[in-house]
């Protein structure tokens, strides 16, 4: 019988900043170009958090029943460890989807009903990441889909439900947030290259190999920095304060890139997940606060 702490660990709280950051960024853009609608921002946050938890539980369930987690070196998985039955974890994923769907339907009803279709696509993407007969997470497409859904869709969608307009500024912010969301997944898959290879899970990290995956992580951090400049150029130069997120990224970059022959591997990469998530949250705050202040003045 899984304990409450087991279920919390299964929700993978280290990944939750990736759900908060896009809502912060999207709301800040809404505040700059128009007026923020705080109750809609709150509902968007519920949708984002619930979908992130749903993805994590669905991933736990699907990888667990496939046997991918049998030799897992990362955080504890509920199914793979035997702490919870596959049916229970699947039910937890469904409940998280229901929470996201209820909040999402309220947003769609008060903004535009076609957003319900976008929400359905997000749910399907969450399930087929590792679920179904041909999960795209096993085909090296995980990072692309994370960029699309936890970057572009999450940020632009958060802005749209508050302003009812598509903003180029939101796209720039989405690129920065999406790049760092991808970086979180890249570290996760870098850690799991040996076990994923043995299990036949062909992630992008498995395709690229250890060396190139590490430099891909650095490239994504660089892309997030370029996005800060793009946001500043399209709004206020105070947003260049966002480049200070790089200070927070020094430690994870050093862990991933540095070390030569003694590079950190396996479970020792787990702290980088949280560090990268915090770095993404710092990006959103340091870019978002100037947008909020200038927009309200």
Task: Write out key terms for the chains shown.
single chain, 297 residues, mainly alpha, Farnesyl Diphosphate Synthase, 74% helix, globular
How would you characterize this protein structure?
This protein has one domain: Orthogonal Bundle (Farnesyl Diphosphate Synthase), CATH 1.10.600. Helices cover 74% and strands 0% of the residues. The protein has 13 helices and no strands. The protein has helices at residues 4-10, 17-33, 38-66, 78-81, 86-110, 115-128, 142-163, 168-191, 193-199, 204-208, 210-234, 245-257, 270-296. The chain is globular, with a radius of gyration of 19 Å.
Roughly what is the average pLDDT, rounded to an integer? 90
- CATH class assignment: Mainly Alpha
Relative helix content: over 70%
Which structural class is indicated by helix and strand composition?
A: mainly alpha
* Number of separate strands: 0
**Number of separate helices:** 13
Question: Major sheet: size, sense and barrel closure?
Answer: none
Overall outline: globular
Low-confidence stretches: none
Assign the CATH topology.
Farnesyl Diphosphate Synthase
In quaternary terms, these chains amount to single chain
Strand content: under 5%
Q: Termini separation (Å)? A: 54 Å
How many domains? The number is 1
Q: Sketch the topology as an H/E string, one letter per element.
A: HHHHHHHHHHHHH
* CA-atom Rg in angstroms: 19 Å
- CATH-level-2 architecture: Orthogonal Bundle
